[in-house]
């Protein structure tokens, strides 16, 4: 049985032995794991977590608010 905590990014692997659950493995971060029943196919535990999508860079420089249209008094 696996307990996966996405917030803490942890994995705990248990196995039923003599009517009791025994902790076999604990993994965090980007550890390479091969928990049962996938012992022959290790994988990087960190690959399970979504990576934040990088935001495009904002243009640099000074941005001024748009000028408001004003009417000058009529010359007369």
Give a brief outline of the structure.
By secondary structure, this protein is an all-beta fold.
Description:
- The chain has 76 residues and is mainly beta.
- It has a domain at 2-48.
- It contains no helices and five strands.
- The strands form two sheets. Strands 1-2-3 form a three-stranded antiparallel beta sheet, with no helix packed on it. The protein has a two-stranded antiparallel sheet with strand order 4-5.
- Strand 1 and strand 2 (10-17) form a beta hairpin.
- The N and C termini lie far apart (90 Å).
- The model has no long low-confidence stretch (mean pLDDT 75).
List the helices and strands and how they pair.
Layout: E1 2-5, E2 10-17, E3 20-28, E4 32-33, E5 43-44
Antiparallel strand pairs: 1-2, 2-3, 4-5
């Amino acid at each position: 049985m696996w307990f996966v905590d996405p917030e803490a990014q942890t994995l705990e692997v248990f196995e039923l032995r003599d009517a009791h659950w025994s902790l076999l493995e604990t993994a965090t971060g980007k550890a390479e794991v091969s928990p049962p029943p996938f012992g022959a196919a290790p994988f990087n535990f960190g690959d399970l977590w979504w990576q934040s999508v990088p935001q495009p860079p904002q243009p640099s420089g000074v941005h001024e608010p748009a000028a408001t249209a004003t009417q000058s008094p009529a010359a007369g």
